[in-house]
Structure formats: structure tokens, C-alpha cells
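pinging the channel bc i need a second pair of eyes. not urgent but kinda urgent?? the chain im working w is below, pasted from the shared doc
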Amino acid sequence: MLVLDLSENQLTGSIPAWIGDKLSNLVILNLRSNNFQDYIPDQICALNSLHVLDLGYNNISGAIPKCFSNLSAMATTLNPHVANWFSRFYPDNSFYFGALLVMKGRVDEYSTTLGLVTGIDLSVNSLTGEIPKELGYLMGLLSLNLSGNLLTGKIPETIGNMEMLESLDLSMNRLHGEIPSSFSNLNFLNHFNLSYNNLTGQIPSSTQLQSFDKSSYIGNHLCGPPVTKNCNKKGEAPDGTNGGSSGGKKTSEVNWLYVSIVLGFAMGFWGVVAPLVLIRSWRFAYYKKLEQIGDKLCVFWATIGM
């Protein structure tokens, strides 16, 4: 078996570990849009011929296995043993072979070029922990989507080793730190999204990263083109998230507002309330005045009622 596509069903339970033990020749494993839970079994890492792994839109938890680096078919930039499979076994195109895959944020059908497509999609799950630096060994990968999880830590520098990447989506996680300078090596990117993390610092300049829309960076603390915030002398973003006003000046104004409120309260309390509490004659005069005002109001409302 070369293709196992069970996507868009209502399958539950754990991902079967026997897939890695029994289906060693798999080229495509697509379990997208089901209700699989628990962790990704390490046995998946034994699928040395695997080109596409799509586990997106499930309820998978746990960490991304470091052994993904063993997926050797994704580690080389050219995989002729799979790409030529079609011509060797079906030279007259007597049998149609294809698959629908989600790549670059859209669904496309691949047939004759299927052997040249490589991708990992783990999006919209509950994966935790850091992005393993071992993913950087998959230098033949064209698409990597880890969006919509609970991933933490910094983006590994080794991601920059994946020079064939055309699509990279790490959005909607809890990643922090700076965008690795090694991203300048990703010259083939045409789909890129780091939005809604906690990334900081300057977007690496003089790279193709400036060619993407600022929406690819929104929801972080980044500065420099293409976002509107300028970096300070240390190459850091002013306070606040992308899309806000100039950070430092606004923060200063807000602090002075708080100071004025506190000072006004203190002066009002000690200037009016404190004497009423501490000086008995003032307190009696104040209460007497309130009583007179209350009597006048009662007369006034009684007159209107008549």
C-alpha cells in the first residue's frame, strides 16, 4: 500500500501504531479532519518512504516526535525512487493515481507530480512542547504547517536548513523569541505565516520575508518592514503588539494619567474627607447642612406633586 487516506471521517481513538509497523511502503498518510486523540506514535517515524503526513484537524496532544528526522524520504531534495514509480509501473497511464492534499493553505489534486510533493501538516491540534530542532534535518520538505497548536519555546534555527520550503505556517501558537536569522536561506517561500505568537525583535532584513503582507506577522511584538513599527537602536520593538501606536510615548502618557488620578484622590481625601473625620465641629456642620438640603428637596418635590 502506497496511499492511506482516511480523511474527513469521524474516526476516534489513538492513531494506530501498527501503521508504522505494517505499512512500511506508505508514501502518503492522510488522517486529516477526524477525532483522533492522544499522542503521535513513534512508529510513524519508521515510514522511510513517506512523502506526505497529514494529521491536521484532530485532537492530538503531546509533543512532536523528535524521530521525525528519520523520515528519510523527506530529508533529500530529490526522491527519484518514488517520482519514477508511476512511469515504471504504469507507463501507458492505464491506471489513474492521485490524491487531494492541503498544501500552501489550499486544497489541490496531485497525480503525475505526486512523487515530488513532500509535506507535514499537524495543524489545529493540541500539540505542546517545543518545535524539535530535528525537523530541520528534513531538507527536502516543501510544506510545514504546525499552526493552531499550543507549541512553546523559540523557533529552532535549524528550520532555516529546510531550503526547499515553499510553505511555512507556525501561526496561532505560543512561540517566543526572535525570528531566526537562518530564515534568510528560505528563498522559495511563497506562503508564510507567523501571526499570533509572542515573537519579538526585528524581522530579518534584506530577505524575502519583507515581501509578505504584514498580516503574516500580526499579533506579535515585531518591528521593521513590513510591519508599521520601527525598531529602536537595539533592534527591538517598542512596547505593545503589532498594529498599535508608537509605543514609548503612549506608555509615558498612560503612566502620567495614573499618577494624576492617584494624586487627585489623595488630595481630595486629605483635603475634604479627612477633616470631616478628624474635626468634630466640621462633621456636625456638614451633617446639619445636608439635613437642610434634604428638607428643601422634600418641600420642593411635595410642591411639584400638588
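so The chain has five helices and 16 strands. and The helical segments are 18-22, 80-83, 85-89, 247-278, 280-305. — does that match what u expected or am i reading it wrong
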